[in-house]
Prior knowledge:
The complex is a heterodimer of chains A (222) and B (85). Chain A has helices spanning 14-23, 66-76, 86-93, 150-158, 211-221, and strands at residues 2-7, 27-32, 43-46, 81-84, 100-102, 110-118, 134-141, 145-147, 162-166, 178-182, 188-191.
Amino acid sequence: xxxxxxxxxxxLDDVDAQRAVRIGGHEAVALWxxxxxxxxxxxxxxxxxxxxxxxxxxxxxxxxxxxxxxxVEAAAKGLPVLGICNGFQILCESHLLPxxxxxxxxxxxxxxxxxxxxxxxxxxxxSSYAEGQEVTIVLxxxxxxxxxxxxxxxxxxxxxxxxxxxxxxxPNGSLRDIxxxxxxxxxxxGLMPHPEHAVEDLTGAGTDGLGFFTSLAAATFA
Amino acid sequence: xxxVVVDVMPKxxxxxPQGKAVLGALPRLGFDGVVDVRQGKRFELEVAGEVTDxxxxxxxxxxGTLLSNPVIEDFTVHVDAGDPA
Lengths: 222, 85
């Protein structure tokens, strides 16, 4: 599959995401924030970083970049979209996902190997995991506290749209330990931790993150 | 020149870690008696021409679209006529 990775000014993990896409068995296509063009990709990753310097609010300016117009339109038609960290923030600001991400409750940047439980394995990004599987991948954020009103949280839980939950100490004050969610259709996933940093034994916390990139094939060819 | 001011504040039910940090710093500096701090943002927009109701409506649209995130923030709009001469 062709998987596009968008580079915004201030993106940090776009190259790692491209690499993870390739290790996952796909062709990585670099997409540019200023282009109204998805180059015919089959899926899109919005990588981590500090797009537009996190000015105004994280993801607030990126949301209005030309490429996001295309991403929002394609997502509505079912294109698989994965937003990691800053990408998750962009998806919330774009209203592709509910809720918002605010500064960590303890006010410090957190960078550590994080245990997670994968709770929804029916998305195109998580289908190669087993339901309830516990994984360890890298978490690094300053504004990773997931918040939403109680009705929204209840709906997310009731509809099985919590994709991943933090295990152990809650690292950033996210309500109900939510680390990742999906939209109603299940094609758009936002995740605060970084699976693209956990795809090779040589570096990082292991290879538990690889499933996010191999799932695409499993979902398509199943 | 008259300015249109947009004040953006975190919603009351949303945790405000920055406000909490300021609240924690005040007593350390000898400023007592403050029981809570909420930190927001203020935008000053200079607009061309008169500030009509139409202009204010557009500013409210900007505030709801870009300047604030309605999921976590509230905003108010007012006209700042500047210092009286």
